[in-house]
Write a structure and sequence with these properties.
Structural class: alpha/beta
Protein name: LAO/AO transport system kinase
Strand order of the largest sheet: 3-2-4-1-5-6-7
Distance between the termini: 60 Å
Number of strands: 7
Number of domains: 2
Largest sheet: 7 strands, parallel
Helix content: 40-55%
Pfam families: MeaB
CATH class of the largest domain: Alpha Beta
Number of helices: 12
Radius of gyration: 21 Å
Strand content: 5-15%
Keywords: Chaperone, GTP-binding, Hydrolase, Kinase, Nucleotide-binding, Transferase
Oligomer: single chain
Order of helices and strands: HHHEHEHEHEEHEHEHHHH
CATH topology of the largest domain: Rossmann fold
InterPro entries: AAA+_ATPase, GTPase/Isobutyryl-CoA_mutase, GTPase_ArgK, P-loop_NTPase
CATH superfamily of the largest domain: P-loop containing nucleotide triphosphate hydrolases
GO molecular function: GTP binding; GTPase activity; kinase activity
């Protein structure tokens, strides 16, 4: 099993047309999967039709978002979940979203390297992707990577996010089940409220359950949920589970809770509602990408607007509407 923890270049071997990779992706061949994800990352126009086909052929995988503040132990938890799912015969896909420089676009791999051994033993496919300065941490390519793994037969597909605060909220529209991880003794309950991630959780997990502070964090989270901290639109109160990713203690309970939530989504009809929300996010996200790309390719129009705004000759809102073609430029 090949574990990919970096952005592999599609130019290392003779270039294979993306249309020819689709069959190998559907067969679960790791090299084809890695190449297709690389082309999604790089935005190859040639790959658009193949990615669209893979999207149409997907839609079966349970997409799980793992989020929370830095230091909570998200990567360690993902490793533990890989083991748990592999023991049950599941083929797990992981997209690990890393913070990156908006200038270089380089990812900070960090814990992802330590995830590789677990992933290889469990037959998982792990791909680390840079955010490339994208607000919310989830790039258009991240969701296309999920499509590729979905079509290749990976189920579940886990998205592990960067854990940087308010931007984490975007994960809720890219996953069927969102697990928010808190660590005891770090004041994560208060941070979560400030960051706006408390209410996006379908499941709350508290790491390092062997520490005495874990019980206090679990109690605090349950108290806040009792005061109305549940996720809006959900008809199911989120459980709060203490776990230890290092020892594996109660990881099985977390896996069962994730499965129970998936069953609830399918039985209640909420899955269709979430699919609509995911579709909305992707359409608007792609529209923003195309809008930005248009002016990157023809920067002179944007520069005129920038100068006018900087010189106070034009209001930024008027300039934006002009770029959209909604108003004529004065």
């Amino acid at each position: 099993m090949t574990v990919v923890t970096h952005s592999a270049s599609p130019r290392r071997a003779a270039y294979v047309p993306s249309a020819d990779l689709v069959k190998d992706v559907l067969a679960g061949r790791a090299i084809a999967i890695a190449r297709m994800i690389s082309r999604a990352e790089e935005g190859y126009p040639e790959a658009a039709a193949a990615l669209a086909e893979l999207y149409r052929l997907g839609g079966k995988a349970h997409v799980i978002g793992i989020t929370g503040v830095p230091g909570a132990g998200k990567s360690t938890l993902v490793s533990a979940l890989i083991k748990a799912y592999a023991a049950g015969g599941h083929k797990v896909g992981v997209i690990a979203v890393d913070p990156s420089s908006p200038y270089s676009g380089g990812a900070i791999l960090g814990d992802r390297v330590r995830m590789s051994e677990t992933a290889a033993a469990g037959g998982a496919f792990v791909r680390s992707m840079a955010t490339r300065g994208h607000l919310g941490g989830l790039t258009r390519a991240t969701l296309q990577a999920v499509d590729v793994l979905d079509a290749a037969g990976y189920d579940p597909v886990i998205i592990e996010t960067v854990g940087v605060g308010q931007d984490e909220v975007e994960v809720v529209t890219a996953a069927h089940t969102v697990v928010v991880l808190s660590a005891p003794g770090l004041g994560d309950d208060i941070q979560a409220i400030k960051a706006g991630i408390l209410e996006i959780a379908d499941i709350h997990a508290v790491s390092k359950c062997d520490k005495p502070e874990a019980a206090a964090t679990v109690s605090a989270l349950r108290g806040m949920l009792a005061l109305g901290g549940e996720r809006p639109g959900s008809r199911r109160a989120p459980p709060v589970l203490p776990v230890s990713a290092v020892s594996g203690e109660r990881i099985g309970e977390l896996k069962d809770a994730i499965g129970a939530h998936w069953a609830h989504l399918n039985e209640s009809g909420e899955r269709a509602e979430r699919q609509r929300a995911m579709g909305r996010t992707r359409i608007l996200g792609t529209a923003r990408h195309l809008f930005q790309q248009k002016f990157q390719e023809a920067p002179e129009t944007l520069e005129r607007q920038i100068r006018a705004v900087a010189e106070r000759r034009m209001d930024p809102a008027v300039a934006a509407r002009a770029l959209l073609g909604w108003e004529e430029t004065p």
